[in-house]
Design goal:
506 residues; alpha/beta; Arylsulfatase, C-terminal domain; four-stranded antiparallel sheet; 9 helices; binds 2-acetamido-2-deoxy-6-O-sulfo-beta-D-galactopyranose; binds calcium ion
Length: 506
């Protein structure tokens, strides 16, 4: 039978439409594909520790490159001047001063986040994300009286993370072991682990009873159990086969983070990659030892920078970088002597870890909470520097809006247009916390109400912000908070106090 020519042509045209339609649909799908989300969260990294934030004495090429590929915030804040409260605020979108137990936790503390509480990973999971954490946790585990030799629960896995590979608290606190999905990694059941923060176990050496074991001298605190020659906070017995290697910790977490990305490259994933640097004890891998000329604190910043570079290379190699939203930030401001003699003070030279800001870790002054804050998403965000006021607490509502979730909290603002550079108008105000005391930022102004207590936290030599008088600073004109304007501008002070009290009382 002879097929008329016009029907061949019609068939061809139809096929063409089908193919074009399919290609378009595919394009549309990949264009609208939810981005992967990664938080790279450093520990005690200061506003002035990165080249891109003004450091000249230390080189951070990989963090600088990331910052230059996205939006670098000059007014980006952690919620708190210490770790546990900041991480609580970051993950829950709730101000940590609303939670009375949000203080620096011992390694034996129960889980601070309630298992029925909303968190970023939980919200993302509801939207089809695979969620993981690698690195420092420090938000408590279990329900008290934890048996480290059984399944540890609740853990990150009960508050939204599908996968967790963590250290329980800090590098200077016991237990000095990794925990994966609720189980201590490499534990020998014949050598069970016991942990206590109140009293030692019989026959276990400490930095006081056996100073000859100590390779890193303690300055204040840090004189309990000695692990790998480093005296820690808290006492620990057993678990020998599970004990981590401090100098390999950075490589260890990097490998876990890279493995996670490779394993989940075909689904949208959220990875909270909480690196341990430059918190004490600073234990650079021998590859980085002596490389900064600034002692171990500088060396571990170089190590962290290299590690971040390697991690980003993995995203690139897997073809994921374009559609990955990366937030780089720190949990609180910098500190030099945080309990060990490690040359951080003596070898500092001209480096200014807090940049132009006043104070540091533990401080109500700006260096306590104003931290490096970068948002990169190569496929979507054009590089820029933004002066908008933003806080880590806003990531919950912002990411919710990005993925089409209506999760929010009264404290967390949807700043997605700011994080993607569509506007530079951020928050109007922000309550900041240090050691359960609070201060207030509004526009360019910072206000610290009167507080009892020492003005300088002696051991660490940081001005913490306590003063019998009200303090009021205009950060635009006086970023170093040198000129207290409380007396010369009583109207502004009154206005800020009223707003501050209204939020605090909410
Ligand atoms: C302090 C520790 C300090 C550090 C900090 C927690 C003493 C004297 N000092 O109590 O070394 O571990 O807690 O840091 O023990 S944070 O970044 O996790 O908040
Ligand atoms: Ca910290």
């Amino acid at each position: 039978m002879k097929i008329p020519n016009y029907s061949v042509a019609a068939f061809a045209i139809m096929m063409l439409f089908l193919i074009v339609g399919k290609v378009n649909a595919q394009n549309e799908k990949s264009k609208n594909k939810l981005p992967n989300i990664v938080f790279i969260y450093a520990d005690d990294l200061g506003y002035g520790d990165l080249g891109v934030y003004g450091a000249t004495e230390i080189k951070t090429p990989n963090m600088d490159k990331l910052a230059n590929s996205g939006i670098r915030f000059t007014n980006g804040y952690a919620t708190s001047a210490t770790c546990t409260p900041s991480r609580y605020g970051l993950l829950t979108g709730v101000y940590p001063w609303r939670e009375k137990d949000a203080k620096i936790l011992p390694g034996t503390a129960p889980l601070l986040i309630k298992t029925n509480q909303m968190t970023i990973p939980k919200m993302l999971k509801e939207k089809g994300y695979q969620t993981g954490i690698v690195g420092k946790w420090h938000l408590g585990l279990g329900e008290g009286n934890l048996d480290w030799n059984k399944e540890i629960s609740p853990s990150p896995n009960q508050v939204g993370f599908d996968y967790s590979h963590i250290m329980a608290a800090t590098q200077d606190r016991v237990p000095t072991v990794y925990i994966e999905n609720g189980f201590v990694v490499g534990l020998d059941p014949k050598d069970p682990i016991e942990v206590n923060y109140d009293k030692n176990f019989e026959g276990i050496p400490t930095a006081i009873t056996n100073p000859e074991l100590v390779k890193m001298k303690w300055h204040h605190g840090h004189n309990n159990s000695v692990v790998n020659g480093i005296p820690r906070i808290g006492f620990m017995k057993g678990g020998k086969s599970a004990i981590w290697s401090d100098v390999d910790m950075s490589d260890h977490f990097l490998t876990k983070a890279q493995d996670y990305v490779i394993k989940h490259k075909n689904e949208p994933f959220f990875l909270y990659y909480a690196i341990q640097q430059p918190h004490v004890p600073r234990t650079p891998n021998p590859r980085f030892e002596g490389k900064s000329g600034m002692g171990p604190r500088g060396d571990v910043i170089l190590e962290a920078d290299w590690t971040i570079g390697e991690f980003i290379k993995t995203l690139e190699k897997e073809g994921l970088l374009e559609n990955t939203l990366i937030v780089l930030s720190s949990d609180n401001g910098p500190v030099l002597n945080d309990g060990y003699y490690d040359d951080a003070v003596t070898k500092l030279g001209k480096h200014k870890p807090a940049g132009p800001l006043r104070g540091g870790k533990y401080s109500l002054f700006d260096a306590g909470t104003r931290v490096p804050f970068v948002v990169s998403w190569p496929g979507k965000i054009k590089p820029a520097v933004s002066d908008a006021l933003v806080c880590q607490i806003d990531l919950l509502s912002s990411l919710a809006s990005l993925v089409g979730s209506n999760v929010t909290t009264p404290d967390s603002e949807n700043l997605m247009p700011v994080f993607t550079g569509k506007t530079s108008i951020g928050r109007k105000e922000l309550v900041l916390e240090a050691s359960s005391k609070t201060a207030f930022r509004q526009g360019d102004w910072a206000m610290i109400p009167p507080y009892k207590g020492v003005p300088v936290y002696g051991d660490v030599n940081i001005e913490v912000g306590n003063n019998k008088e009200y303090q009021l600073y205009n950060l635009k004109e006086d970023i170093g908070q040198k000129q207290n304007l409380a007396k010369s501008n009583p109207e502004k002070l009154k206005e800020m106090m009223a707003c501050f009290e209204k939020i605090r009382g909410k």
